[in-house]
Amino acid sequence: MVGILGKASGVSRGVAVMDFILRIVALIATLASAIAMGTTDESLPFFTQFIRFRAQYDDLPMFTFFVVANAIVSAYLVLSLAISVFHIIRSHAQNSRVVLIFLDTAMLALLTAGASAAAAIVYLAHKGNTRTNWFAICQQFNSFCERTSGSLIGSFGGMVVFVLLILLSAITLSRR
Amino acid sequence: MVGILGKASGVSRGVAVMDFILRIVALIATLASAIAMGTTDESLPFFTQFIRFRAQYDDLPMFTFFVVANAIVSAYLVLSLAISVFHIIRSHAQNSRVVLIFLDTAMLALLTAGASAAAAIVYLAHKGNTRTNWFAICQQFNSFCERTSGSLIGSFGGMVVFVLLILLSAITLSRR
């Protein structure tokens, strides 16, 4: 099959397979991020200064946005696997690749927005800000902070994969 | 010239001209954002509760990141105008378009990260958060808040333009 369609097609198919694998990597990363942040919902009780604190991800709207963004991107990645398989079978498809670049770009923006907003809050939680009197809360909410900080990793990894995916699609389009 | 190279080339050239115009629009938007946020540096003295407050953009590291991100993206857009002109002249160029898609994608991610981190802080400044005891500061720093909120508009506009730029490049590559 590859022999009939020639070398260019073989390269396209190789890129399409890599696209498929990268999408699965991104799916695992974003899904792990969403779950890691989303399950900080489980009560983490602390006893500090005679008050029982309970830290949940949805105490901060940016964390909620982070979970929603990662969930949407994960759902999109599952759906896009179908298009990726279609590209492995029909390596000459053009229009579907353009659509994929557009959707990938939109999802990259959504994922970056979620990760960055959450990162801003995680930074504040760790360092606080004296000028605005926003105090660091990580002394009290230690494991909450660790959990939310860790969940950012998947999202930032997913961003890198998305940039690679867009680059791969562009290379395939130019190599036609 | 267009007649010799045919209709497809004419379309490519039209898209290349649109690319050039969109880059100038994005440049104006991101530069305006950077300047609007960066000049909140000018002292804005308030007298509240017998204390003189001074709000600057670099009181918050996310605002500094916002200015830096917008400045980098603006500088990139100026440089990319040269490639855009090259595409108007040589509408069949392929590799340079792939490079442009890659760089545009990276810049979109940077711009989104800056805008989103700043937006998270602006949201906190307006609404505050009771669970973490981060109080809204916009009652005191009214014009500081207005300025920083307004400067986000350019960045978010720039993001939309970048998505369009990547889409245009992808369409041109597929239409070869």
UniProtKB/TrEMBL annotation, chains A, B:
Q: How does it sit in the membrane?
A: Multi-pass membrane protein
- Primary location class: membrane
Q: Where in the cell is it found?
A: Cell membrane
Record domain Casparian strip membrane protein: where: 13-160
Q: How does it assemble?
A: Homodimer and heterodimers.
Q: Which family does it belong to?
A: Belongs to the Casparian strip membrane proteins (CASP) family.
Name of the protein this chain belongs to: CASP-like protein
Lineage from the top down?
A: Eukaryota, Viridiplantae, Streptophyta, Embryophyta, Tracheophyta
